[in-house]
Amino acid sequence: MRYVTDHFMYAAGSDFRNTIRTSLEMTEPVDESVLRQAVDRLPLRFPYYAVRLIREGEDYFYESNDAPYVISPNGKAVTLGSEESNEHLVAFAYSGNYLYIDSSHFLMDGGGQFPFLKMLLYEYLSRKYPEAEFDVSDIPQPGDEIRPEEMTDDPYPSDEIPVEFPIMEPEPEEIFMLKDQPQGYEHAEEWTSFRFKVKQADMMKYASSADGSPATFVSSLIYRAISDLNPENRLPLVCGMQHQFRKALGNPFSHSSHVRIVPISYPDKVREKDLMIVNTIGRGTLLIRASDEADSQSINEYLRNRERLQKMTLPKKQKMVRWIVRSAIGKNTFEVSYTGRVRWSGLDRYIRCFTPYIDLTLSGGISAEIFALGEYFDINIMQRNSDPRYVDNILAQLEELGIHSEAETPESFELCGFQAPAGV
Q: I need a surface site. Which of 79, 170, 227, 325 has the fewest CB within 10 A?
């Protein structure tokens, strides 16, 4: 079987990886033999992720890949699309209590990965703990009828969506960028993860009182930390908020990555405002900029770009799509992503911590991932250096608000590389 790739895949290469590492700290050490059994079952339910990327002439396609997924000991990250990963765009690793899932962000986003991850955990945990009970009614399993809209490799409409684009404030031409964060992959060994937990009830009590959300609350904390530690700055700060647009696409089950970046600007005039007001401003901006109309405009832009790309050679496609990706992300001081609350079906009893790690080359230097697990929010703030001052400020803000946090030891993290296919 051959699948059409989303045209964003043309941007991927060794110098632009855009890979994700999802880390799950289990309550007990990972059993490699049981993990192997679980991983081998995944293609039976998710054949569209068991693919290799191929080139035919000037185009990329996915084709079915029957080679086994790679499972690396010691948490090793491999190069996706290469022999090292059996040419897969997904790989697995483990070390002690940690289980890792590595994937191309151009192949899947958090919304696309979670059902895949959920089946993996069920296949693993039901074998390791045969006496355990899970709500299987909501867990993907082999033998399920796969929805046609889930399998489709091109979920975009043929024609543009009629939309009246809302008039919004233009983004500032010049914004504050962190000069203390190394650029590119040259210093990737310095990328550092600062993880902490807060109780959902504590955080939501405050965020709801400010008409906010977990994403805009964390955005407000990071904004305040950067402002406090750069008092001489008077330029606006911009948060790039990750936002899924499956609803506007009309296909909530699409397996592809459907994420766009919504900018939230914090001008200097809000510097002295109460954090609750800052949170409310962020939430209001998000509601406007993440509207169905704005999402539809992104879909229409995708269709226009697809038409232009059909006439280009591969090198020109690669160059143009990289420009499209960078333009779509925009210029941000920092980024925040919140997948939203998900239904764990009892699997979360065996997970201590859930942590997504992302490629930081397109961020302003600080990126936050928020995930709901049990009664906690697991928050991971990633930087391109190991300086703890921003996170220390954030934890101090939480303490002032009476929100208890449990911080983990900072750690460096590694992501998979990516190899684009050679010509055929």
A: 170
